[in-house]
Design a protein that fits this description.
The radius of gyration is 24 Å and the shape is globular. It has a 3-stranded antiparallel β-sheet. The protein has 19 helices and 5 strands. It folds into 2 domains: 1-194, SecY subunit domain (Preprotein translocase SecY subunit); 196-394, SecY subunit domain (Preprotein translocase SecY subunit, Orthogonal Bundle). It has 427 residues and is mainly alpha-helical. The longest helix has 36 residues, at 351-386. Helix 9 crosses helix 10 and helix 16 (330-339) packs antiparallel against helix 17.
């Protein structure tokens, strides 16, 4: 594997892409520490350190700690990811959006344009929600309005700055995707999660008298968990497919065998992201409407404790099934098999093939959804009882994202190395 890293820098084109990607990530990390005007970021950081809300910790984790400082990049990459997921789901719900995908490059440009505008709209809503939340009694942050006609001007400046920061992140991510290595949005999240490890390790070491032993145990568990996650992420249920022989002139076509690969976890980390957004939504609503007692009680219950664990687990299972059904269409797969002369052994083409594929998909989605739910909820429960921030930083969600992004990036570098006759990462 070390030789593959060395070979990657021997290829001029690949070397430029890697250095460009690192340069953009460094620029992004610098922006995470530039506070928006009018916010006392030291006071906010102290208040944020006392917040044990699992949803807030996850959102701050995805923002690389920028949310705790209310920096220019506080919104992180989440608005763009949410907009991308919504547009992807709309392809299976709205026929006109689905038709864009069949238009080729022109259709993809339309989807990209609407994704960007949707990102701006989501950024505005998120910026307003965070501003109202941090000004509420839960945080009690007082803005600096010196030299301005009123607090409302400071509010507008903060919201505009955060929205512009979100758009800038979207642009940086697209630059990495176009000119760098790997998916830019995924690599930004990867960098955000990785940036929190040193601070979390130091906090864990200083937490108790047995901090060194506890930290060592957590790191060992994480190292054992990584191969297990890689195994599940690459696991497939392969449905065998045979192709009937047909004679075209003097040539005999078909007669081969292949398979349909169905991943155990086809949705990736998307259900966890969606569930976290839904779980934290009551807290944002509570901040908007002020001191409404019953709404605050509901928001606190859903954001932390056993209610949060149960709701998060059920939402992850639901979104896993929902997203899997949207991205994998059994009817289209069956039609393509029928048109190409393929069939599943023992299953009649047509309706029976559709039902069979749907049944297999439902069966493998259940363990995949439970696997995702446990990865997301168990570290939250452990953090609730121990207060060790390393568990949050090294939580299952973080590892799942990092492993997924790492495998995807390595695969793309591997393809570049193979083009230049170099040995890659995978044997």
């Amino acid at each position: 594997m070390l030789s593959a890293f060395v070979n990657a820098f021997r290829v001029p084109d690949l070397r430029r892409k890697i250095l460009f990607t690192l340069f953009i990530i460094v620029l992004y990390r610098i922006g995470c520490f530039i506070p928006v005007p009018g916010v006392p970021f030291h006071a906010l950081a102290d208040q944020f350190a006392n917040d044990t809300s699992g949803s807030m910790m996850l959102l701050n984790l995805f923002a690389g700690g920028a949310l705790s400082y209310f920096s220019v990049f506080s919104l992180g990459i989440m608005p763009y990811i949410t907009a991308s997921i919504i547009m992807q789901l709309m392809q299976g719900v709205i026929p006109s959006v689905s038709a864009w995908m069949r238009q080729g490059e022109i259709g993809r440009k339309k989807i990209t344009k609407w994704t960007r505008w949707l990102t701006v709209a989501i950024s505005v809503v998120n910026a307003l929600g965070y501003l109202l939340l941090f000004k509420s009694d839960a945080y009690g942050i007082t803005l600096n309005t010196a030299g301005l006609p009123g607090e409302w001007v400071t509010d507008i400046i903060i919201v505009v700055t955060m929205v512009v920061g979100s758009v800038l992140i979207m642009w940086l991510g697209e630059l990495i995707t176009q000119r760098g290595v790997g998916n830019g949005m995924s690599l930004i999240i990867f960098a955000n999660i990785l940036s929190g490890f040193p601070q979390a390790i130091l906090a864990s070491l200083n937490l108790t008298a047995n901090g060194i032993a506890i930290t060592a145990v957590i790191i060992i568990v994480v190292l054992l968990l990584i191969p297990a996650i890689v195994f599940v992420e690459r696991a497939q249920r392969r449905i065998p497919v045979n192709y009937s022989k047909r004679v075209t002139g003097r040539r005999v076509m078909g007669g081969s065998s292949t398979y349909i690969p169905l991943k155990v976890n086809p949705a990736g980390v998307i259900p966890i992201i969606f569930a976290s957004a839904v779980v934290y939504f009551p807290a944002q609503i509570s901040a908007v409407f002020g001191d409404v007692h019953w709404l605050r009680v509901v928001a606190d219950a859903v954001s932390n404790g056993w209610v949060n664990w149960i709701v998060t687990l059920l939402l992850i299972i639901f979104f896993t099934y929902f997203y899997s059904s949207m991205v994998f269409n059994a009817q289209n797969t069956a039609d393509q098999l029928k048109q190409s002369g393929g069939f599943i052994p023992g299953i009649r083409p047509g309706k029976q093939t559709v039902q069979y594929i749907k049944g297999v998909t439902r069966r493998i989605t259940l363990p995949g959804s439970i696997y995702l739910a446990l990865i997301a909820v168990v570290p939250t429960i452990l953090f609730y009882f121990t207060g060790n921030t390393l568990i949050s930083a090294f939580g299952g969600t973080s590892i799942l994202i990092m492993v997924g992004v790492g495998l995807d990036t390595m695969s793309k570098v591997e393809a570049q190395l193979k083009m230049h006759n170099y040995e890659g990462f995978f044997k």
